[in-house]
Amino acid sequence: MSSHPILFDPQSPAGENRESVTGPKGATRGKATIGFVSLGCPKNLVDSERILTQLRVEGYDIVPTYDNADMVIVNTCGFIDSAVQESLDAIGEAIQENGKVLVTGCLGARDDEIREVHPNVLAITGPHAYEEVMSQVYTHLPKPEQIPFENLVPDTGVKLTPKHFAYLKISEGCNHRCTFCIIPSFRGDLVSRPIGNVLDEAKRLVNAGVKELLVISQDTSAYGVDVKHRTGFWDGRPVKTRMQELCEALGEMGVWVRLHYVYPYPSVDDIIPLMAEGKILPYLDIPFQHASKKILKLMKRPGSSERVLERIHKWRAICPDLVIRSTFIVGFPGETEEDFAELLDFLREAQLDRVGCFTYSPVEGAKANELPDPVPEAVKQERYERFMAVQQEISAAKLRARIGQEMLVLIDEVNPEGAVGRSYADAPEIDGLVYLSDETDVKPGDKVWVEIIHTDEYDLWGVRVPE
Ligand code: SF4
C-alpha cells in the first residue's frame, strides 16, 4: 500500500509519517480506528489537533496506515490552486487505499468541487467544524467498544516509558443542552467517575512518569453534581466527589495539573486560591462561546456571562498569573452586528490569553438548526476575521509582556535544532509553544527554567537559565 507522506502518526513525537505496518482493517482489537491526513497551514493543523484530541477522548484509535483504519479523515486546504489539487489528490488516495473517507477543512466549504471529482466521499464539512466531523464519525463508524472511562489509559496499560502528559477524564456526558451541540444526545447526562478511581488512575500515571495531568470532561466544574458530591475514599481517607476536593488531591501529586472545560459557576471561585498557592496550574480553559446575553440564551449556555468580567477581574486579583483560554462561535443564528460588537467589547475587556474562534456551522440534529435568522457565510467569515484581528493583538501584547520573564518549561520534543516545550500558560495541542534553539541537552518530560527572549502572536522563544 501507499504511505501518504502526511498520514498522521500518533506514535511519532512530531506527528509525522513512519513506515507503514500492514494488517486487516480495524487491526487494533476492540477499537474503532481512524486514519488522519492533515494538509495546509498551521491554523488547519490546530483544527486537526482538536479533532484528533476529541477522537482520542471518545476512545477512537488513530492509526498511521490506511490498511489499519476503519475510516480516514482528510483535513483539506483550499487556499491556492496547488493546495486544492493536493487536497483532491489526498482524498483520491484515501478513497483508493481505504474507501471510507470524511473530508473537512477549507476545501470542504466547496463541496460541489469535491463531489465532482470524488462522488464517493462519505461526508464533507467545512473548516472549524469539529462537532460536525464528530457527528459524521458517529454516523459512519460504530462507537468504540470499551469499558467506560478506560479509553484514555493506553492500550498497553501504564507504560514504563510513558508520554509525559496524560488526559484524565473525570466524567462522561453532560446535563446541559446547548442548542448547537449534540453530545448529550449520544453521551447522555452527566455521570461522574468515582473520585477514588480518578485519583487511582492519576497516581498510576504519575508513578509511571507522567509530568502533567490534563483534567477533561464535558463540564469539569459540574463534577459530582450527579451523585450529590457523594463522599468516596482514596488513600484511606474520605474525599468528596467535587472539583475542589479533586483539585486539592491532584495538587498533592507533585505534577502539573491543568483544568479543561470549566464553566464559570460560582464554585470556580474556590479553586483560584489553589492556583495562587501553586497547587494546580493557574490555567483555566473556559469555553465562553459568546458574550451577548441574547446569543448565550439562544445557545442555552451554562454559566451565563452575567458578571463574568467582574469575576475574571476578581480571579486575577487573587491569582495574577492566571491564564484563561477560551473558544467562541461567531455567526450563530440571530447574531446581529450589535451582538457581535458586544462580543468584541468583551474580548477587549476580558484580555483573555488564548482564544479559539469558529464560524458557526450547523450540526445535524442540533436544536440551533431550527433557529431563524441565519447569518450569511460571507458575514460569518468577515466577523471571524475581525474577531481574530482583535484577539491577535491582545495575545501578542500579552506574550510580549513575557519577554524577560523566567518560566518553567516542560520539554515536549527535542530535535537537532533544539527543544520545544510549554510553560504553565500553554496546554498541549491547543495553545502555543516555547522554542529553545540549539538546546539538545534535555529530553521530553524534563522541566527547565527558561528566560523568554522573543515572542509572536502564538509562540515564545527562550534560552535556558540556571536552576
Ligand atoms: S456544555 Fe453544552 S456544548 Fe458542552 S457538551 Fe454540554 S451541551 Fe455540549
TrEMBL record:
<dbReference type="InterPro" id="IPR023404">
    <property type="entry name" value="rSAM_horseshoe"/>
</dbReference>
<dbReference type="GO" id="GO:0035599">
    <property type="term" value="F:aspartic acid methylthiotransferase activity"/>
</dbReference>
<feature type="binding site">
    <location>
        <position position="174"/>
    </location>
    <ligand>
        <name>[4Fe-4S] cluster 2</name>
    </ligand>
</feature>
<dbReference type="Pfam" id="PF04055">
    <property type="entry name" value="Radical_SAM"/>
</dbReference>
<feature type="domain" description="Radical SAM core">
    <location>
        <begin position="160"/>
        <end position="397"/>
    </location>
</feature>
<dbReference type="InterPro" id="IPR058240">
    <property type="entry name" value="rSAM_sf"/>
</dbReference>
<feature type="binding site">
    <location>
        <position position="178"/>
    </location>
    <ligand>
        <name>[4Fe-4S] cluster 2</name>
    </ligand>
</feature>
<feature type="binding site">
    <location>
        <position position="41"/>
    </location>
    <ligand>
        <name>[4Fe-4S] cluster 1</name>
    </ligand>
</feature>
<dbReference type="GO" id="GO:0051539">
    <property type="term" value="F:4 iron, 4 sulfur cluster binding"/>
</dbReference>
<dbReference type="GO" id="GO:0046872">
    <property type="term" value="F:metal ion binding"/>
</dbReference>
<dbReference type="InterPro" id="IPR002792">
    <property type="entry name" value="TRAM_dom"/>
</dbReference>
<dbReference type="GO" id="GO:0006400">
    <property type="term" value="P:tRNA modification"/>
</dbReference>
<comment type="function">
    <text>Catalyzes the methylthiolation of an aspartic acid residue of ribosomal protein uS12.</text>
</comment>
<dbReference type="InterPro" id="IPR038135">
    <property type="entry name" value="Methylthiotransferase_N_sf"/>
</dbReference>
<dbReference type="InterPro" id="IPR012340">
    <property type="entry name" value="NA-bd_OB-fold"/>
</dbReference>
<dbReference type="Pfam" id="PF18693">
    <property type="entry name" value="TRAM_2"/>
</dbReference>
<keyword id="KW-0479">Metal-binding</keyword>
<feature type="region of interest" description="Disordered">
    <location>
        <begin position="1"/>
        <end position="27"/>
    </location>
</feature>
<dbReference type="GO" id="GO:0103039">
    <property type="term" value="F:protein methylthiotransferase activity"/>
</dbReference>
<feature type="binding site">
    <location>
        <position position="106"/>
    </location>
    <ligand>
        <name>[4Fe-4S] cluster 1</name>
    </ligand>
</feature>
<feature type="domain" description="TRAM">
    <location>
        <begin position="400"/>
        <end position="466"/>
    </location>
</feature>
<protein>
    <recommendedName>
        <fullName>Ribosomal protein uS12 methylthiotransferase RimO</fullName>
        <ecNumber>2.8.4.4</ecNumber>
    </recommendedName>
</protein>
<dbReference type="GO" id="GO:0005840">
    <property type="term" value="C:ribosome"/>
</dbReference>
<dbReference type="InterPro" id="IPR006638">
    <property type="entry name" value="Elp3/MiaA/NifB-like_rSAM"/>
</dbReference>
<comment type="similarity">
    <text>Belongs to the methylthiotransferase family. RimO subfamily.</text>
</comment>
<keyword id="KW-0687">Ribonucleoprotein</keyword>
<dbReference type="GO" id="GO:0005829">
    <property type="term" value="C:cytosol"/>
</dbReference>
<keyword id="KW-0411">Iron-sulfur</keyword>
<keyword id="KW-0963">Cytoplasm</keyword>
<dbReference type="InterPro" id="IPR005840">
    <property type="entry name" value="Ribosomal_uS12_MeSTrfase_RimO"/>
</dbReference>
<keyword id="KW-0949">S-adenosyl-L-methionine</keyword>
<dbReference type="InterPro" id="IPR020612">
    <property type="entry name" value="Methylthiotransferase_CS"/>
</dbReference>
<keyword id="KW-0408">Iron</keyword>
<dbReference type="InterPro" id="IPR013848">
    <property type="entry name" value="Methylthiotransferase_N"/>
</dbReference>
<keyword id="KW-0004">4Fe-4S</keyword>
<keyword id="KW-0689">Ribosomal protein</keyword>
<feature type="binding site">
    <location>
        <position position="77"/>
    </location>
    <ligand>
        <name>[4Fe-4S] cluster 1</name>
    </ligand>
</feature>
<dbReference type="InterPro" id="IPR005839">
    <property type="entry name" value="Methylthiotransferase"/>
</dbReference>
<feature type="domain" description="MTTase N-terminal">
    <location>
        <begin position="32"/>
        <end position="142"/>
    </location>
</feature>
<feature type="binding site">
    <location>
        <position position="181"/>
    </location>
    <ligand>
        <name>[4Fe-4S] cluster 2</name>
    </ligand>
</feature>
<dbReference type="Pfam" id="PF00919">
    <property type="entry name" value="UPF0004"/>
</dbReference>
<keyword id="KW-0808">Transferase</keyword>
